[in-house]
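Weekly puzzle thread! Below is a chain. First person to post its structure in token form gets bragging rights.
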Amino acid sequence: MKRFVSLFIITLIIFINVTYAISNKVKQKYPYPLITKDYDILSENDLGSFTWGLPQKQFIATEGTTGPYNYWQCFPRENVMVTLSDTGQSSDELGWKNNVAYLKIRVFTDKYMEKKTDIQHVYEMRTNLSITDYQKKFNKWLKLMKGEKYVCLAGHFVDLDKKVMNGRTWITYGWIFEKLKTKKGCDSYFDSCTPTYEKYLREKAKTI
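Winning reply:
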């Protein structure tokens, strides 16, 4: 019985790794949606869903890439900082009942400032929501990232800022948040966390 259980666990682990590992064949099929390594977090459909209905386009690090494209990047959890702030103000958009909140993800690629070039990635939300609404998403992200070694983020590139200060070059890439994924699960703003090409075709048919 113990031997059977052990064999079942090994088989399950292998199945999970095969399901989420990005093979070389998949990388050749979708060479551009993933900018970094994926650390066995993403699936083929995670990459493919950002190309369906679009010509594939490489992200150009020196200038960014414009157009309706989302890209995945994966980072060590210790380099990812999530902040939720209350602006202290409301708006007509929220019916003047709740304060507007800012939810932001900042990624430090040189956390200990050991290099001459510091590159950061800042992911911001598409719209303003109340502190109550963003608190739910903030808490969900923390649960997804708790105890995880790596975090994958997907977003739409918006701008690139470069400046030199005190002999160091500071480069900040601005993104609009779309998805956060770890081995625990996923959260998204708009797109599905379980995309399939069949779902894409059904949604596309609704617009025709």
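Puzzle host: Confirmed. Bonus trivia for everyone else. Residues 2-206 form one domain.
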